[in-house]
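User: Could you check the structure of this?
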Amino acid sequence: MDICEVSKVDILGCLCSSYNPKQCLYYCKSMGVLITAKLLGILVGQALTTKGHSWGGYQLGDVVKGISASHMGWYRLTKRYERNWPESIATEYLKRTTDSKRFDILCSIARNRDRQTKDLPGPFDVVVHLRLGDVADRSRQTAASLWQRGSGSPGYYVKGAEYYEKNAKGLPRNATNIYLVGWNHHGSSGNHVTSNRYREYVLSFFESKGYNVVSR
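Assistant: Sure, the predicted structure tokens are below.
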């Protein structure tokens, strides 16, 4: 399956705001069966470097959806990304278009980088992005509560068991491997007990369904 051969259902679920460039490597191959947004968590690139800069503040999803530009304008946003993350997918996207939600351009960028990237999951592997870090670790809920109910509004970022149970029924029959990707430092520092425990719940859920689960 081509990395961008995906259904256009729920395409606005481009939620990859990774603080770790390698974290997003594993999304694009399995976009068609991505659980969290059912679609689009595009990689940031396998060998990107940000000399002197942190990945904190890098938000690919908000760039593509036009949310970031609505706050500071396309020109200023482009300059900021060129300065801080010159080799990133978001910067290339900003330089190639001044339109939001150009998923054809996003897929073109990802497709080109896919040719340069090794160690990606196979075309029938399933990649599940977990929103770890800020929402979970700042929540008053326990990991057990988040697993049972999810994080609720606003955003509904952390998904509960019912969500996974529902979507697991739609996974390809020939899928055997599940890759969990998430960055527990996303917008959060300090203790990540809740994030880590929540990830264990998700991992155990897919293992109980008979999948081989890899957490990255």
